[in-house]
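As a representative case, we now present a protein record of this kind.
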Amino acid sequence: MSLFPLLLLAITLISAVLILGNWRWQHKTKARLLRFDLKPKAVRNGHESIPHCVNRYLESVMPQEAHFESVILTHRGFFNMAEKGQNWKAFRSQQWVAPNAYQFLWDGRIQILPGLTVQVHDGLIGELGILQAQLAGWIPLAYQNDRATLAQGELLRFLAESVWYPWMLKPENGVSWQAIGENKAEASICLGSNRVSLVFEFGDDGKVLSVFCHDRPRLVAGKPQPTPWFGRFWDYREFNGFCLPHAGEVAWVIDGQEHPYWRGTLETVEYAQSAERQVGFGVKKASSIHHAFGHDHEAHHPS
């Protein structure tokens, strides 16, 4: 008996499972986007002063009156799957952000094998953090929800990534600033019972070089442990009238050693005045990253 019919049947079944898994994940993405709490969270009047280095940065990267209610970002790069050491895998991602409302959802696809991905949701919806990972949209790998420390960590991520929506850093959007020398300043924001602070470091050209905090919660054996955490940004380019970092790296500092886990490049940015309209539009685009692996990858594989 020829093995070809059996092989063809196996390929067909595997393809059907992968396609259905992707559909299930898209449905989950849509449901979470529609749960965004789009009410603006700012509570300040905008008349607070900000450090000179922050004002210089804002003037150098964005039009003076720029302000949008929503953002869609796409990235590509490599994600380190190892808790210690290095096990870098290629990823593509799409991310929806409502900056005024302190809401975001990152939808990442990490390629484990050709045609096989780990799908990840990481975000802040309402006042809750969310982290979920599934293999091929079927097999659960990680799930966290409703944990206060998770929301704190996601709020720190949201603040750090404001380099891609810099108007959010103005005091009228709920950010408090405190100068730390000439080229550093600490930004603080609140969401519900969580208040987080992040130190921004600016270069000689006025752009953000890095962000840092001493105590982002990191799960160790199932328990949150405050851990130093930072992000670096470089290669600023123009995107839709904004000067944004094209490349970046994010890392923990564990036992005094840097442990990078995300290295990527910004591919596209879309801004919109209506968060409701952009979220709805974004849902329709959620499947676009599923087929994106293997095309014009600009990021270099980490050494």
